[in-house]
Amino acid sequence: GRFPLQPHPRPATDAERAQALTDLHFGRVFTDHMAHARWTREGGWAGHAVVPFGDLTLSPAAAVLHYAQEVFEGIKAYRHADGSIWTFRPRYNAARMNLSARRMAIPELPEEDFIASLVDLVRADAEWVPSGEGESLYLRPYAFASEAFLGVHAASTIDYYVIASPSGAYFTHGLQPISIWVSQDYHRAGRGGTGFAKTGGNYASSLLPQQEADAEGCDQVCFLDDVTEKNLEELGGMNVMVVDADGTVRTPQLTGTILEGNTRSAIIRLLKDSGRRVVEETIPLESLLEDISSGKVREVFACGTAAVVVPLGRLKGRGFDVAIEGSEVTHEIYERLTGIQYGRLEDPYNWMYRL
Ligand code: COI
């Protein structure tokens, strides 16, 4: 492949790997290898390789540590019943990483290199792709400013890596409904900012409100827009959708402050093709709370690559705490999407890409 495999002095033994693959959660276990390439202003992208997974050596002056010039992606590899390994719409992630990269003044990585980095890494670490219910190999491509320079300027050296983490459910209680703390003091993103880009800073800004959510006994934080402070945007690390009693599904429209989720986009397509009305529109918190109380809204769910599809069972904030009972459509969507991803259902869209 484009990312030739370097010899590994001591890969995990079968027993070590088997041990690491028991009782999987999210993002704590890593495979033997990682993909790497480096961009320099003079030479462009070079040095493509799959190398042993290990600590990085970085100058303490590396720009990413100071000014957060960074982008990342999240994408999974799924093992099908026949043992084959597939990923989901990798071109979507390749294109989105480049969209994020443009905003963060990071050079674009050719889509073919992005795909090849996934293919070559997963081939090297194929035995690390788990096969349990709801398990997958979570792939984390990312690119960051490694130039040792404290000037506030786009770096002239960027390192691209892909690491891989065998993972189970993102939430420890699996498909159980999660509870949401609506952040009214903090916003995730602002107009003209980086909200649409998948960059670490957006997640950094969600950490304090996430601590607030934890303290309130909630699983995830939900953000409102920064202009009116009234409308739903997204959760700390996933998009949000609302199911009305008449079957319509609504989700906040992309305004530049919301992450364009791959799962969000796939679900919109699946729902529309099953004959459902799907609307991308402004969803004011106040009317959502009223609609939940009156029964006009039956379900609310979150979706993302890591979280997949998960029902929201409770919305809490200053001055309100409401329960949401329904999860029928949410489960339908979960079954349909994961059915395609794990090869249990037909893939009429050609979304799956064999690794
Ligand atoms: C995802 O891969 O779904 C993410 O958005 C990253 C993070 C929230 C786990």
From TrEMBL:
<dbReference type="GO" id="GO:0009099">
    <property type="term" value="P:L-valine biosynthetic process"/>
</dbReference>
<dbReference type="InterPro" id="IPR005786">
    <property type="entry name" value="B_amino_transII"/>
</dbReference>
<dbReference type="InterPro" id="IPR043132">
    <property type="entry name" value="BCAT-like_C"/>
</dbReference>
<dbReference type="InterPro" id="IPR043131">
    <property type="entry name" value="BCAT-like_N"/>
</dbReference>
<keyword id="KW-0100">Branched-chain amino acid biosynthesis</keyword>
<keyword id="KW-0808">Transferase</keyword>
<comment type="pathway">
    <text>Amino-acid biosynthesis; L-leucine biosynthesis; L-leucine from 3-methyl-2-oxobutanoate: step 4/4.</text>
</comment>
<protein>
    <recommendedName>
        <fullName>branched-chain-amino-acid transaminase</fullName>
        <ecNumber>2.6.1.42</ecNumber>
    </recommendedName>
</protein>
<dbReference type="GO" id="GO:0004084">
    <property type="term" value="F:branched-chain-amino-acid transaminase activity"/>
</dbReference>
<dbReference type="InterPro" id="IPR036038">
    <property type="entry name" value="Aminotransferase-like"/>
</dbReference>
<dbReference type="Pfam" id="PF01063">
    <property type="entry name" value="Aminotran_4"/>
</dbReference>
<feature type="modified residue" description="N6-(pyridoxal phosphate)lysine">
    <location>
        <position position="198"/>
    </location>
</feature>
<keyword id="KW-0028">Amino-acid biosynthesis</keyword>
<dbReference type="GO" id="GO:0009098">
    <property type="term" value="P:L-leucine biosynthetic process"/>
</dbReference>
<comment type="pathway">
    <text>Amino-acid biosynthesis; L-isoleucine biosynthesis; L-isoleucine from 2-oxobutanoate: step 4/4.</text>
</comment>
<dbReference type="InterPro" id="IPR033939">
    <property type="entry name" value="BCAT_family"/>
</dbReference>
<dbReference type="InterPro" id="IPR001544">
    <property type="entry name" value="Aminotrans_IV"/>
</dbReference>
<keyword id="KW-0032">Aminotransferase</keyword>
<keyword id="KW-0663">Pyridoxal phosphate</keyword>
<comment type="similarity">
    <text>Belongs to the class-IV pyridoxal-phosphate-dependent aminotransferase family.</text>
</comment>
<dbReference type="GO" id="GO:0009097">
    <property type="term" value="P:isoleucine biosynthetic process"/>
</dbReference>
